[in-house]
Amino acid sequence: MNHTHYANLSLPDTLKPCIDFHGHLCPGLVYGYLVAVESLRLLGEDRSDDEELVAISENDACSVDALQVLLGTTAGKGNLTISNIGKNVYTVYSRQAAKGFRFSRRSTYAYTGDNPEVFLELEKKVSAGTATAAEKKQQKLMKTLDLLAKPVEEIFEITDAAIPEPAYAELAPSVACAVCGELTMQTKMIRQGSDLLCRPCAEGARRE
């Protein structure tokens, strides 16, 4: 599914590639979208071509996809770190500016849109497990549009990130594991005697 499925909605143009990448529109994606847009504004940066920006997400949810699309902080480039401790917290750091910002949610979501009675009824059904597929979709869409209408400061507490400059992505040669023969990044291997083993083989050897 791509953003054309939401053609009847007035959505920010910058959100559309996030929907295309993620596959659908949802509240989780919007959380990441809001963090990314506000980070670029605060840092005075554009999308990262290489590792100019670094993002640290404290969850592995839908929001991460918006960070990858808008910030250019991706798993493949090594400038995205997922520290999955289940928090709706994100840090975005600029190497050029030598500073970053931390976005954290400290209050639960409260609907403030135009149809509170409808949303409350849908929320009750979703929580009770009695909502139909159409009702779940409607509740999710109402929450998504409501989040987009809120000031980002109402959703996140934004503070200076008190962290050192993150390290660049690690580069190391690949070496054949002494047991399975598969090439493995040398710095990720475990030495056993004179041999270098990949982690699965090393852990298997310990159990035997």
Automatic annotation (TrEMBL):
Entry's InterPro entries?
FmdE, FmdEsu_dom, tRNA_methyltr_O
Question: Where do the Formylmethanofuran dehydrogenase subunit E domain residues begin and end?
Answer: 21-156
A Pfam family the protein falls into: FmdE
Q: What is this protein called?
A: Formylmethanofuran dehydrogenase, subunit E
Which species is this record about? Desulfoluna spongiiphila
User: What is the superkingdom listed in this entry's lineage?
Assistant: Bacteria
What Gene3D superfamilies does UniProt report for this protein, alphabetically?
A: 3.30.1330.130
PANTHER family for the chain: DEHYDROGENASE, DEHYDROGENASE-RELATED
